[in-house]
Write a structure and sequence with these properties.
With 148 residues, the chain is mostly helical. The protein contains 5 helices and 2 strands, in the order αααββαα. A hairpin with a 6-residue loop joins strand 1 and strand 2. Helix 2 runs antiparallel to helix 5.
Length: 148
């Protein structure tokens, strides 16, 4: 673990650390299922486009969560907007109800794998967005400290 990772882990709120591990576990779990299906059921390679669609959706909805930095003790916390609850409910609806119908209408053969790839992209983008925000805060703080 590098210096940056140690610093971020030491200064991050429990909620942020738990969210980090949940995103990693979900990505690995869904990737394992998709990988298994691709070898056993010959899922076409063009399904990688669903991952790209998920990355785009994740970039759009990542605006709902913001990382805040407490200047006094230097801890990072996640500040979710009320819009975040609406997004979570919409994602749950899409994952368990609406997504299958939409993909069936588009005549996608492996709907579960397509949904998993979309959600891998979403979680990956949200995770990267949180890390990017933390980096901006740390480097901005270091720049201000050097300038002072």
């Amino acid at each position: 673990m590098g210096k940056k990772d140690k610093y971020l882990k030491q200064k991050s709120d429990k909620k942020l650390i738990i969210r980090h591990y949940i995103f990693q576990a979900l990505i690995l779990f869904m990737f394992g299922i998709v990988l298994y299906d691709s070898f056993n059921h010959n899922v076409p390679f063009y399904y990688i486009c669903f991952l790209l669609i998920g990355r785009f959706i994740g970039r759009v909805i990542s605006i709902a969560d913001r990382v805040k930095h407490d200047g006094e003790n230097g801890h990072f916390t996640v500040a979710s907007s009320p819009f975040s609850l609406i997004i979570i409910l919409f994602l749950l609806f899409t994952r368990f109800i609406g997504g299958k119908y939409i993909l069936d209408f588009a005549e996608v053969l492996w709907t579960t794998d397509a949904l998993y790839l979309i959600f891998i992209g979403i979680y990956w983008s949200k995770w990267r967005s949180l890390l990017r925000q933390m980096d901006e805060i740390v480097y901005g703080w270091l720049k201000n400290k050097e300038g002072a």
